[in-house]
Amino acid sequence: MTSYPIQSIASAPAKSKPVLGQLQQAFGLIPNLAGVMANSPELIKAFVGLFQQVHAGTFTEAEIQILLLTNAVTNSCTWAVAFHTMLALEQGVAAADVEAIRARRAPADKRVAALSALARKLIERRGHVTEQDLAAFIEAGFTREQRLEILAVSAASTITNYAGTMTEPPLEDVLQRHAWQA
């Protein structure tokens, strides 16, 4: 169980309340992890600001979810894996590709596989990817600019993944069917 309270809009520190309101509006609920992160107004504001930038970039929502799911699995954050499994499926990512990522395997779809592979390698190798890794990403149809943009997604997911691992918030009922173990 978490050692931090899961804040609501009513209970959160004053500077966290507007951010929780944004999340409530976006998702129809305040995810437990965001409720925990709201204990630090600086953390929750940085998190939401960065995610707004990520979602305004050139990746599709499905591609963003592939990146976030891959990062959650690579960082072994059980809450984030469940959350991004749900969102990836909602965005139309093939169930078989989602399962492959969750099992740390390459997805069958070559574009999804290239996206997931570069995200995983960036984390595992702490940014020290090879020219071959970067070329495979381009060959799958992505751009040189997206090779850099993927760093913003990794930064955003690192906040989520580390916060989830540090605080271990419980899964919401809607996420239970997507529960995952490292």
Automatic annotation (TrEMBL):
Residues 41-118 form the Carboxymuconolactone decarboxylase-like domain. Pfam families: CMD. SUPFAM superfamilies: AhpD-like. Transmembrane segments: none annotated. Gene3D superfamilies: AhpD-like. This is Carboxymuconolactone decarboxylase-like domain-containing protein.
